[in-house]
Amino acid sequence: MTRLDDETKRRLREMRSTSLLSAFDAQDDSLTLGMPFEERIQLAVDEAHATFTHAKVEGLILRAGLRYPDADLRRIALIDQRGLDGDVIA
């Protein structure tokens, strides 16, 4: 894919599409060479959307004021010993 020119990058930043811009910049030409244009765009949009979604989740966690924001219920130790149902938790 031809690299984006400075004006296009400026416009993407102005539209607050920095995650999309980063996704385009991160595309590795050696891995995407020969890939149709539409697929390369889809990869960039998928990457940008994942970044956007992650940021939204992080924001929700922050606003929720969780006591243990990094807790992962799948990693609870001693599930059986505590009488917890692992199927309900997962």
Set out the fold topology.
Layout: H1 6-14, H2 18-26, H3 29-32, H4 37-64, H5 86-89
Helix pairs in contact: 2-4
Organism: Brevibacterium epidermidis
Protein name: DUF222 domain-containing protein
Care to describe what's here?
By secondary structure, this protein is an all-alpha fold. Helices cover 60% and strands 0% of the residues. It contains 5 helices and no strands. The protein has helices spanning 6-14, 18-26, 29-32, 37-64, 86-89. Helix 2 (18-26) packs across helix 4 (37-64). It is elongated. The chain starts with 5 loop residues before the first helix and ends with a helix.
CA radius of gyration is: 20 Å
Strand content: under 5%
Sequence stretches where pLDDT stays below 50 over 5 or more residues? none
- Give a count of the beta strands, DSSP E runs of length 2 or more: 0
Order of helices and strands: HHHHH
Class by alpha and beta content:
mainly alpha
Largest β sheet strand count, sense and barrel closure: none
Distance between the termini: 41 Å
**Discrete helix count:** 5
How much is the average pLDDT? Answer: 81
Broad shape? elongated
Could you estimate the helical fraction of the residues in percent? 55-70%
Short note summarizing the structure:
With 90 residues, this protein is mostly helical. The protein has helices spanning 6-14, 18-26, 29-32, 37-64, 86-89. It is 60% helix and 0% strand.
Keyphrases for this structure?
mainly alpha, 5 helices, DUF222 domain-containing protein
